[in-house]
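Technical note accompanying the year-one report. For the benefit of new consortium partners, we illustrate the data format agreed upon in the data management plan: each record pairs a sequence with a structure-token string. No post-processing was applied to the example shown here.
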Amino acid sequence: MEIYLNGEVRDIGQATTVSRLLEDIGMAGRRIAVEINQHIVPRSGYAEWEIRVGDRIEIVHAIGGG
């Protein structure tokens, strides 16, 4: 199944959830924000939100500074 992840086409195999995708790409547990098709996905919805073919997903992570 192909999706767009941060602007690049990516084959993620079979259908999955946001939580599983984050685990697969090594970003689980990090301070991030996930947007799918221009909708912010709340952290509480990661386990239930199913990714579909052609979804455009943007993942950004917080960078601290001072």
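Partners are asked to follow this layout when depositing records. Residues 1 and 16 are 10 Å apart (CA to CA).
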